[in-house]
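Diaminopimelate decarboxylase
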Amino acid sequence: MDAFTYRDGQLLAEQIPVTELAARHGTPLYLYSRNALLERYRAFDSALAPVDHLVCFAVKANSNLAVLQTLAQAGAGFDIVSGGELQRVLRAGGSAGKVVFSGVGKTEAEMREALDAGIYCFNVESESELRRLDRVAQSLGRRAPIALRVNPDVDPKTHPYISTGLKKNKFGVDFATAESLYREAAAMPGIEILGVASHIGSQLLDISPLLESLDKVLGLIDRLQAAGIRLRHIDVGGGLGVRYKDEVAPLPSDWAAALLPRLAGRGLRVLTEPGRAIAANAGLLVTRVEAIKDSGEKHFAVIDAAMNDLIRPTLYQAWMDIVPVTPRDGATTEYDLVGPVCETGDWLGKDRALAIEEGDLLAVRGAGAYGFVMASNYNTRGRAAEVMVDGGRAHVVRARETIDDLLRGENLL
Ligand code: LLP
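Structure:
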């Protein structure tokens, strides 16, 4: 489903006109569709239905409590990268027993917290982390369930900032190291070996690098088995891309159809960690045109959303679709859509043909993943409100930040 469609010349969020939501909650405003989130989660869940599996939503993509709650209620697990994300999952009603903990820099405190909560698995990224986790678990009289995150050294063919599975990236351990680490781990009293994990990058539009990676990991599993180390699960990571412009993104069903035959007969539980593919197109960022100005060379529309609200265009030169909420007839002009932040790099879109006037509302599509979560308070701008729409009902799932919120914790001398 597309949760954001036009009816009678107006953009809707599920059944509610976006103009109405903007009037009620102000702009900039993040809008999420509860049903779009559920539909996308279920697409993964049913694609893996033939096997024992767990779809662990990558919390980093959108960590709003109501988003996590929606997915937890649908049965999702979660992929976390910090103690903070673990707290979010627990407070949203997610179960620790469905949590995998990724990340290259887990602290001892985070390890303890996760062990106390009883998470399902630590995705261990280095020898140093493995030893530390063994020590922390023993000090608690526990065994930490682990998978080693291997770095399959395949090129995911995506933006260099979001590719993670190349040797030159900081993530995971190489295969030779993995083999010896598994042997070490098998002898550690504080460690219980559960599986193997990999994640090669994000916004993947071609699944062949994922399959190449999978084949390499299966080879490792076979070598380990020959050495007497049996793994119970394989975590294939996240990374499936979405359509921002005209990309043809692989469907979870196509991805699973390529994946599952390779896993047949192995009895492995399958984990996956999708973030963007579940959340991106379940969200919009709504913004108002504050001013239109001309430099003689360029036309600018100054909007009230900025790089602090949505940093993907600035950081990755990401192209995000920006559409009028109430389209006007008439000639279009090519605008650079720029925010109020004092940086030349503060833009959400360039050379966009739009028929707009001051006061009009625009919507940035695909903003449900890596949108609000990457927002900052730069220029002492409060972060936007977040609203979740469910059919004809709208819930404020995070209030707009006030100046008191921004200054909390600061002191004069
Ligand atoms: N698992 C691990 C270990 C990851 O590092 C990531 C993303 C995911 C899962 C989820 O990947 P997804 O399914 O969302 O592609 N801020 C960037 C994306 C950074 C992704 C980092 N890792 C962006 O806005 O494009």
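The pocket of LLP is lined by residues 58, 61, 79, 102, 162, 164, 199, 202-203, 237-239, 273-277, 312, 316, 370 (CB under 6 Å).
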